[in-house]
Structure formats: C-alpha cells, structure tokens
Amino acid sequence: MVMATAINKQKIVHQVFTALSKHVKAKPPESRPVLEQFIYAILRENATRESADQAFKGLLDRFFDWNEVRVSSTLEIVEALDGALPDAETRAQRIVDFLQEIFETTYSFDLEPLLEVLQKKGLKQASKQLGRYQAANDYAVGWVIQQSLGGHTIPLDATAVRTLKRLGLTEDASGLEALRTLVENQVPKAKASLFVDLMSHLADAHCHEEAPACARCPLRQACATGLEAKMPITPAAKKPR
Ligand code: SF4
Prior knowledge:
This protein is mainly α. The chain folds into two domains: about 5-25 and about 155-230, Endonuclease Iii, domain 2 (Orthogonal Bundle), CATH 1.10.1670.10; about 35-145, Endonuclease III, domain 1. It has helices at about 10-20, 35-45, 50-60, 65-70, 75-80, 90-105, 110-120, 125-130, 140-145, 160-165, 175-185, 190-205, 225-230. Helix 7 (about 110-120) crosses helix 8 and helix 8 packs across helix 9. Bound molecules: iron/sulfur cluster (SF4). The site of iron/sulfur cluster (SF4) has 15 residues, from helix 10 and helix 13.
C-alpha cells in the first residue's frame, strides 16, 4: 500500500467532505426516542441512510406498536423491512431480542427515564450502561450516544472500517476504539453525523467489499488504495517467468 504516513489524514478527511458532499446532503439528526434510536441503529449498521429509513418506515407502517413487533415472528419483521437491507433476518432477531429485554426489565417500551440517567452519568458510563443490552454492539451504542445524547462519537460499522482502511486512515490505529478516536480527532462534532452518512454512501456506491470501483470513485486521488491501483507495474515487480 502507498505509505499512509505520507498522506495527511486531515487532507483525506477534507477530501471526503468536499468530494462526497455534492452526492449526500447534510440532514439534521432525526429526533427519536432512545428506544427507537437503538432500533434504528440496528437497521442502519452496514446500510445507507436511505435504506435504513425505508426499513424503519416499513416497521412503523406494518406494526401497531413496539409490543406488536416484539411478539411477531422474524419472518413478519423481515417482510416489513421491505427488502431494503442485507442480513434482514439477523437484524429482525436482534430487534425482537432487544424489545423483549426492555419489556422484561421495564414492563414498557419507554426508555426516556434511562435517557435522563445517562445524561447525568457522562458519556463513558452511559456507553457502558447501553452496552449491557444483549442486542447492543459498538455501533448501536455509538449511534445512541451520538444521536440521543449529543456526544462526539462516530459509530463505525464494518463497511466504514473497510473504507477507512483503504483510504489509509488506519495505519497507526489498531483496533476499533483506536480507529474511532483517530476519526473523532479529525472530524468536528458538528460534522460527525454527516461523516457517517458519507462513509455509508462511499461504501455503497464505490468502495464495495469485493472489487472496489476505484476508477470511478471521487476519492481516488486522495485514497491510498486508489493511488496504488493507478500505479504502473514496474519491471522489477513483475514475477520472473
Ligand atoms: S478509491 Fe477505491 S479503495 Fe479508495 S475509497 Fe474509492 S473505491 Fe474505496
């Protein structure tokens, strides 16, 4: 890979905003109750905002309330997700598990009292508490912290990690937490939500898991992998016959 240290990280992040902002418009975060933010995060992980919006709307349209979702089969939930997302069955099961756990612990689907508690605790403790739900993972916790508590964190899913790695932003960040800290240091809080949208768009439109479409990617001039793909093969690099 092209030496990532030679590429200024701030410049790469700047390029992400300038090259992609014309394709993805900044939208203010949706105001949702904490419970719904958590469910939305399950849908949003490894998906674009548009796909997650469509799937979330499918849930709201199909079911009367969250209790009806809880007692429904995963097949019914998958149908409600409207074909918008990959791994729909796994997501459906996580949603049911989450709702079941909330129901068993609070006898309701109202997590707003928890929000007040979390706000008083500080982000680190709040993350720990949210992470105790069986259906929680790093992305869901980060999403709720960002969207409901206004914390400066950037939820990173597998598609974002893959893309950041290819861009060359990860060479001195081993592990998800270190990578998230690195990105949080480069992206201002006011643009954190947009950055998540841009990463999802980039992964979906160009930076596919198999065969990334570097030739048409607007970031190819700033991306370590895109630059490397452009390099001619030198005679020395050719394999001997
Ligand atoms: S240039 Fe290629 S590897 Fe780099 S972000 Fe674009 S699609 Fe991904």
